[in-house]
Specification:
Number of domains: 3
Number of helices: 12
Number of strands: 17
CATH superfamily of the largest domain: PPM-type phosphatase domain
Distance between the termini: 75 Å
Oligomer: single chain
Strand order of the largest sheet: 3-2-1-6-5-4
Order of helices and strands: HHHHEEEHEEEHHEEEEHHEEEEEEHHHE
Shape: elongated
Helix content: 40-55%
Largest sheet: 6 strands, antiparallel
Structural class: alpha+beta
Length: 548
């Protein structure tokens, strides 16, 4: 059922237009409401500020400022520990004898005046408050709601000071969602000191009514506009977009069903699409694609044939490369086993071992930088050069390696290099003389346990013509084994890119110390293969085992 559900291009366009309409109306609503709120609130708070200043002017008469000064004296008489207590919310007990009808003898009663103003202007509340700058508290002494004098609350004095002198206002949402706005006006005595201030509070109910009317009008106009635009786009898109795309889709399906793509039959040139836009560009591109596909098919057939020829040649090269490697060498005094598994068809690793005379045998394991065909070619050259130099001067291994290095540096335009471990074993002396040119550290089995031979190695071959190499010796007893390998063993990676490392190699070898010859070679290869957990081999793996 779900597979048959299909949204046409027209349907998607209609959905997009509907979503855009909803989003546009929402943005318009909130934008107009916010702007209207700000404008109407500013005007309303301006009126509140003006009324507050008018009341302050009346209160600044002598008898009124004396009233507020008296209220201030009462507050000053309150013990400091009481005023400093942040848990105190009112001082009504101290103001129970305060004359809230102060000024009635002059025909001006503060309480009645602010109540009358609040009633006439339909305001929420008018308060007359004292200031406690030290404890950051305001104290209500007159309230249009006729609450007792002495109620107090914490207030940020810096913000209140700015609002008193700069005429700033505030607006905040109440718990019931209504907007509360307010303004302040200072009451100053004859000495220019603020003795109290007028606090005007009111709800901005008319803001929501004004904005709602504007929103309804805008909604009706925008709705009518979008319906007209919707109809126009529906017709225009159907003619200029949907119909040509259907033609192209039909032609493409017919072309797909055609089995022989080499025919000269044309499916796209007869469409006659008249538009001069991207649809026309698409039709032209389809025509060009049809012509190109015929050419590509012919080219692909030629490329496949060429690839098959190259694969055959690589397989031959791989067989030749493997044929260059020596078979297992063994005598009554030593045995050499080996294995190489290239990461590609041909590799850059190699090993070699050969007799120098009846007493001595040479062994080499090396790793050419890079992989594939270039590395395999340099491998052949390196193997030939090193063997030749050893046979020319078997009594001075250092000189032989240095000559091989100079020969490899010549005409090395590709800047390839070779890490190599080169050794000559004397059976009569039981001594292996060797040079390590940047190669991996060997593993030695002696005294019933495997261990890594910790040594400093020289620089790899084919780097600098004048490089010298240190010749070292290793005494081997009957039953000892020397395992040589390339970095494809220790740098084998699992699916999480963790390396096998020397520790993993030693752990595998120590698990079966009774093995010999090809059994050890196969153990190392199986360890590498299982560690990779099916991940593609990233580097050539070469192993050489010398047993005394």
């Amino acid at each position: 059922m779900l597979k048959k559900l299909r949204f046409t291009l027209r349907t998607r366009i209609n959905l997009v237009m509907l979503i855009l309409l909803v989003l546009f109306l929402q943005v318009s609503y909130f934008g107009v409401k916010k702007a209207g709120d700000a404008l109407i609130i500013r005007n309303k708070t301006g009126d509140l500020r003006a009324m507050g200043l008018a009341l302050a002017d009346i209160f600044e008469m002598k008898n009124m400022t004396e009233c507020f000064e008296e209220a201030g004296e009462i507050y000053e008489s309150i013990p400091e520990e009481v005023k400093n207590d942040p848990n105190i919310t009112d001082f009504t007990d101290y103001y129970k004898d305060f004359r809230v009808d102060y000024g009635a003898e002059d025909g001006l009663n503060v309480q009645e005046l602010i109540k009358a103003v609040a009633t006439e202007q339909e305001m929420h509340e008018i308060c007359i408050c004292l200031l406690d700058w030290i404890n950051e508290r305001i104290v209500v002494i007159f309230d249009s709601e006729e609450n007792p004098a002495g109620y107090c609350e914490k207030y940020e004095m810096t913000l209140l000071n700015e609002r008193l002198y700069n005429g700033e206002y505030f607006a905040s949402k109440e718990d019931d969602g209504r907007m509360m706005i307010g303004a302040y006006a200072p009451i100053i005595n004859s000495e220019g000191k603020i003795v109290a201030f007028v606090h005007m509070l009111d709800y901005a109910d008319d803001v929501d009514r004004s904005i709602s009317a504007i929103i309804w009008i805008m909604g009706l106009l925008l709705g009518a506009f979008f319906i007209i635009l919707w109809i126009y786009l529906y017709i225009m898109i159907g003619r200029s977009v949907v119909k040509p795309i259907k033609q192209l889709s039909k032609a493409a399906n017919n072309y797909i069903r055609e089995e022989n793509k080499n025919d000269d039959t044309s499916y796209f040139t007869d469409l006659k699409i008249k538009s001069n836009d991207e649809i026309k560009d698409l039709a032209t591109a389809m025509e060009d694609m049809e012509d190109s596909i015929h050419s590509y098919i012919a080219d692909i057939r030629m490329a496949v044939a060429e690839r098959q020829r190259l694969d055959t040649e690589l397989e031959v090269a791989a067989r030749i490369q493997m044929d260059m490697l020596p078979e297992k060498l063994q005598s009554d005094r030593f045995e050499i086993s080996s294995l190489m598994r290239p990461a590609r068809v041909v590799g850059g690793d190699f090993y070699d071992y050969f007799r120098i005379d009846d007493d001595r045998v040479a062994m080499i394991i090396a790793d050419v930088s890079d992989k594939g065909v270039p590395a395999s070619l340099f491998m052949v050259i390196s193997k030939t050069v090193i063997k030749m130099c050893i046979l020319e001067n078997p009594d001075d291994l250092g000189a032989a390696v240095e000559k091989a290095n100079r020969l490899l540096c010549e005409a090395n335009k590709e800047m390839m290099f070779v890490t190599a471990y080169i050794g000559i074993y004397s059976a009569s002396e039981g001594v292996l003389t060797y040079v390590n040119a940047g190669h991996e550290r060997p593993v030695l089995y002696s005294g019933g346990a495997y261990s890594i031979i910790d040594m400093n190695h020289d620089l790899f071959l084919a780097a600098y013509e004048d490089e010298t190499f240190e010749v070292r010796t290793l005494h081997l007893e009957r039953g000892d084994r020397l395992l040589l390998y390339t970095d494809g063993v220790t740098e084998a990676m699992d699916t999480s890119d963790n390396l096998l490392g020397e520790s993993g190699l030693l752990k595998a070898l120590e698990s079966q110390t009774e093995l010999h010859g090809n059994e050890i070679i196969n153990l190392v290869w199986d360890t590498v293969s299982s560690f990779q957990k099916g991940k593609e081999q990233s580097d050539d793996v070469t192993i050489l085992l010398f047993e005394v």
